[in-house]
């Protein structure tokens, strides 16, 4: 009887320990702790030498390489872009769409909302010098006609 | 009469600093009527910001003078211009110049310019000095160091026996018998589950440290692994050492995995005493302070990288955990802690200057007891994992990791926690320690590094920081390790850094210390003793309290300025912009960087160091008295050593306000 | 011999019949297991003594004792008994009948001593 109790406590301790070790999976909870609407694009702003900006755009459901980066939007639909400051101060500038977030500090976030009313390809720049390779932080933003958007991106 | 004297002595350093602080708070105008706020023109001071310092490093202004700072930004990243005690944090965009002012500095002394916008890994250490002339607070700090040194020397001249700064060393409180909390503490510490219960939260913390260090934001102060470990934990451990001995070692998760695997138990004592390990004997010649002490020094050589790059921190911890498991599987007991862990070296060394100690209640009982379950292991507890080797006979705290196994295994209930004056065991240890060079060098390394870190991390000498940092401006997580490739000239700079750190700690300061002990011995007239064999090592034990108090000052500086970083990391451990996390599921606990009373820092740090100075001199006297057994000889030797200790106190005053 | 000593010192007179033997049986159990696992004789016989003492404390409802003499006596006796058993096991070369006889003899004499005292 006493031995059974001993094994019970050992087993319980082991379960509790494994639960503790499970905290190593905290990074996987990113989606839970980053506010996300269904169609929101999330952008992490990092220096180019550290991998550059990373985009998480729900319609395509994956993080895009910064070389071929694009945010794809539907013309006439409200777009939400959630910017998260990474390692140093950056800013998100799309001159042709008159978007300039101003400096975004590391750890701070900013949500921009706009409705694109014309289709086309636009360029996103980092507007605040952030590292020696600052000028490499150039990405493409594409606005598609509604039917093109449906065809390319799906629902 | 006697009681009044004790109170005066203990509060003297504090009183001096409070007085001089009050004195200097008067506006310079009332003290020096020749300086007036209106008469001078406004002076423009050109400042240039760069990664990671300011140019000029040291700015001199006159008290009462009006100044405008013209701050020219970096060409690669934005910074922020902040001055201690002021309420602005001016963003300095890259390639632009910002004007701040006109400002007037009324109070003489030293203030720091700090960067207030995260600009890279060394951002928290981007500091310049503003010296407000005439800097008579510096003079007063020097005088107060001399005063404390002199008064303590006068105090020991009167031959206090078995005392430390007026408090008798034989006074002890048995913590487990204290009314109220004693029995609760006793039940807790004698419960087998206490070890796991205390370590488990740290397992959680360490998992987050590993996850954030490898995958999180590459910038240190935004990352849990750097922000919490090297600011909060570092400070907490120092204060735990003073008030609670080796309590960090009680709750440390690094060796725990190995220990649980080897024991095949997390909670109980295994019935059949067969550990899951090779159970080898550890070679005696390796079993001393040198292993972990040199590990601590080694860590210090790369400390600018370690404490600012998440990936490097996590790499260190995963290596330590693996070594912890490996050592347990080979040697069973805590040899990882004893020989490898860098923290062990300083926590153990300074634990002798703690208020708390694990000791036997009554040695006469232990002497008579044959079975000695504390040492051999018994049904209620394992044999002392720390190989102390005999808990009942403990007279020093260096190697006792406070795991409380002996409190559980002793059937006579004789092991307990004692609370007593700092340095009770040091004199006795010291006179027996004549060849314990590992301990002596631990004292040198800790003492020197404490002052050096205060100078490097919170001082304005950018070149030193850059050499240590090898000129690399990027933070690092597992995805961009490649950026950590220094140029050859940067590597040469690191050689300079390493030479200074290792050279001063291992050779220069020990040589100076040796010279002083030699003179002290001659002054004492101890002709039949040899400096090298009999006097040198014992006298180094004065650095146990002194070095601890230097680190108490340095880490207090760290936490007062940068407290916001570790606290905010609990809500956003990965640095990914979270407002809450599994650790703190409540929003609103993220704080902007906001130093607490930084303009008062020198006035807070100096009394701490002066208490350390007084302890060092009194400890030297106690050691000398035990060595020479003669009050006059002991006094003379102490007077000589006090010159060195006071001198280092003067140097520290220069570092923080000169 | 030591067995008489044992009953005089350790137990109180309010202990029930079966549990009187419990410390002893736990100890013999342990000695056999330790010997079987090939552990070190010196440290395990010491441990067996400590185990005996621990169970005696348990059975008399105590966690600790303040009597060093009692502690020493019982652990010493336990160690000696464990030592004898270990030697017997070593000598038995796989045939445990002699060992088992020794155990039951000791047990009887312990209980027998009890009865005699009453």
Structural topology:
The complex is a heterotrimer of chains A (about 160), B (about 650) and C (about 120).
Chain A: H1 2-21, H2 30-33, E1 41-45, E2 54-57, E3 62-64, E4 70-74, E5 79-85, E6 92-94, E7 99-100, E8 109-114, E9 120-126, E10 138-144, H3 146-153
Parallel strand pairs in A: 1-5, 4-10
Antiparallel strand pairs in A: 1-2, 2-3, 5-8, 6-7, 6-9, 9-10
Chain B: H1 2-24, H2 28-31, E1 43-50, E2 53-55, E3 58-62, E4 66-72, E5 79-83, E6 90-92, E7 97-104, E8 109-115, E9 127-133, H3 136-157, E10 163-164, E11 167-168, E12 172-174, H4 181-189, H5 194-215, H6 224-244, H7 247-251, H8 256-263, H9 289-301, H10 303-306, H11 310-331, H12 335-340, H13 342-351, E13 356-360, H14 363-368, H15 373-376, H16 405-409, E14 415-420, H17 426-432, H18 437-458, H19 462-469, H20 488-524, H21 531-540, H22 543-562, H23 564-569, H24 601-628, H25 631-657
Parallel strand pairs in B: 1-4, 3-9
Antiparallel strand pairs in B: 1-2, 4-7, 5-6, 5-8, 8-9, 10-11, 12-14, 13-14
Helix pairs in contact in B: 1-3, 1-24, 3-24, 3-25, 5-6, 5-11, 6-22, 8-11, 9-13, 9-18, 17-21, 17-24, 18-20, 18-22, 19-20, 20-21, 20-25, 21-24, 22-24, 24-25
Chain C: H1 2-9, H2 22-36, H3 41-59, H4 68-92, H5 97-117
């Amino acid at each position: 009887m006493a031995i059974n109790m001993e094994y019970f406590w050992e087993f319980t301790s082991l379960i509790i320990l494994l639960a503790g070790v499970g905290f190593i999976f905290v990074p996987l909870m990113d989606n839970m702790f980053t506010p996300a609407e269904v169609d929101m694009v999330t952008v992490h702003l990092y220096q180019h030498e550290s991998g550059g900006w990373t985009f998480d755009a729900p319609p395509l459901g994956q993080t895009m390489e910064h070389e071929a980066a694009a945010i794809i939007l539907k013309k006439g639909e409200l777009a939400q872009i959630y910017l998260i400051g990474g390692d140093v101060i950056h800013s998100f500038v799309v001159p042709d769409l008159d978007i300039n977030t101003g400096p975004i500090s590391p750890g701070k976030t900013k949500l921009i909302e706009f409705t694109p009313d014309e289709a086309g390809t636009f360029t996103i720049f980092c507007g605040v010098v952030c590292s020696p390779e600052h000028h490499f932080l150039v990405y493409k933003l594409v606005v598609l006609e509604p039917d093109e958007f449906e065809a390319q991106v799906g629902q | 009469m006697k009681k009044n004297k004790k109170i005066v002595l203990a509060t003297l350093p504090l009183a001096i600093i409070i007085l001089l602080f009050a004195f200097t708070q008067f506006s310079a105008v009332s003290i020096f009527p020749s300086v007036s706020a209106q008469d001078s023109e406004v002076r423009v001071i050109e400042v240039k910001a760069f990664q990671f310092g300011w140019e000029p490093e040291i700015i001199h202004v006159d008290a009462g003078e009006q100044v405008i700072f013209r701050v020219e930004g970096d060409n690669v990243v934005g910074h922020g211009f902040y001055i201690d005690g002021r309420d602005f944090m001016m963003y300095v965009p890259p390639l632009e110049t910002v004007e701040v002012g006109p400002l007037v500095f009324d109070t003489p002394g030293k203030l720091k310019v700090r960067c207030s916008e995260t600009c890279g890994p060394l951002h928290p250490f981007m500091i310049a000095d503003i010296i407000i002339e005439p800097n008579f607070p510096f003079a007063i700090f020097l005088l107060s160091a001399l005063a404390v040194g002199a008064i303590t020397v006068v105090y020991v001249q009167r031959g206090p026996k078995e005392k430390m700064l007026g408090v008798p060393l034989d006074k002890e409180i048995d913590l487990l018998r204290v009314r109220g909390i004693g029995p609760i503490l006793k039940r807790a510490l004698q419960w087998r589950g206490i070890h796991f219960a205390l370590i488990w939260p740290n397992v959680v913390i360490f998992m987050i440290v590993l996850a954030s260090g490898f995958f999180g934001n590459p910038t240190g102060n935004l990352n849990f692994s750097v922000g919490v470990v090297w600011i909060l934990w570092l400070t907490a451990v120092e204060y735990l050492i003073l008030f609670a001995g080796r309590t960090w070692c009680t709750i440390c998760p690094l060796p725990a995995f190995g220990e649980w695997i080897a024991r095949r138990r997390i909670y109980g004592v295994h019935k059949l005493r067969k550990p899951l390990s090779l159970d080898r004997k550890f070679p005696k010649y390796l079993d001393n302070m040198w292993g972990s002490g040199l590990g601590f020094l080694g860590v210090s050589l790369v400390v600018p990288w370690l404490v600012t790059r998440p990936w490097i921190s996590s790499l260190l911890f995963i290596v330590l955990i693996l070594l912890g498991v490996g050592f347990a599987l080979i040697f069973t007991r805590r040899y990882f802690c004893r020989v490898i862990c860098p923290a062990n070296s300083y926590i153990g060394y300074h634990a002798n200057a703690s208020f708390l100690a694990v000791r036997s209640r009554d040695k006469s009982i232990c002497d008579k007891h044959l079975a000695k379950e504390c040492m051999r292991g018994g049904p209620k507890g394992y044999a002392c994992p720390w190989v102390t080797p005999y808990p009942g006979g403990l007279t020093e705290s260096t190697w006792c990791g406070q795991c409380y196994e002996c409190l559980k295994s002793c059937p006579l209930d004789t092991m307990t926690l004692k609370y007593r004056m700092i340095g009770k065991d040091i004199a006795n240890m010291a006179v027996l320690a004549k060849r314990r060079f590992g301990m002596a060098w631990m004292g040198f390394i800790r003492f020197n590094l404490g002052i050096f870190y205060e100078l490097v991390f919170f001082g304005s000498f950018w070149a030193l920081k850059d050499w240590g940092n090898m000129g690399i401006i990027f933070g690092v997580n597992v995805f961009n390790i490649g950026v950590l490739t220094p140029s050859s000239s940067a590597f040469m700079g690191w050689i300079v850094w390493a030479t200074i750190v290792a050279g001063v700690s291992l050779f220069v300061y020990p040589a100076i210390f040796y010279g002083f002990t030699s003179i002290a011995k001659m002054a004492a007239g101890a002709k039949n003793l040899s400096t090298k064999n009999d006097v040198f090592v014992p006298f180094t034990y004065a650095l146990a309290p002194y070095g601890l108090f230097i680190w108490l000052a340095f880490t207090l500086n760290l936490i007062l300025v940068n407290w916001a970083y570790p606290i905010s990391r609990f809500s956003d451990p990965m640095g990914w912009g979270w407002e809450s996390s599994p650790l703190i599921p409540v929003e609103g606990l993220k704080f902007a960087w906001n130093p607490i009373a930084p303009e008062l820092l020198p006035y807070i740090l100096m009394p701490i160091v002066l208490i350390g100075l007084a302890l060092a001199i009194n400890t030297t006297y106690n050691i000398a008295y035990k060595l020479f057994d003669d009050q006059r000889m002991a006094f003379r030797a102490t007077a000589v050593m006090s010159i060195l200790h006071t001198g280092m106190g003067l140097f520290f005053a220069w570092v923080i306000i000169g | 011999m030591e067995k008489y000593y044992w009953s005089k010192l350790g137990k109180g007179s309010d202990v029930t019949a079966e549990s009187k033997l419990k410390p002893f049986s736990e100890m013999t159990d342990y000695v056999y297991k330790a010997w079987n696992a090939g552990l070190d004789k010196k440290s395990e016989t010491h441990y067996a003594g400590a185990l005996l003492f621990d169970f005696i404390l348990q059975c008399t409802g105590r966690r600790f004792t303040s009597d060093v003499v009692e502690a020493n006596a019982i652990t010493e006796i336990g160690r000696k008994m464990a030592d004898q058993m270990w030697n017997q096991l070593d000598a038995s070369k796989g045939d445990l009948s002699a060992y088992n006889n020794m155990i039951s003899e000791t047990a009887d004499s312990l209980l027998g001593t009890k009865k005699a005292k009453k």
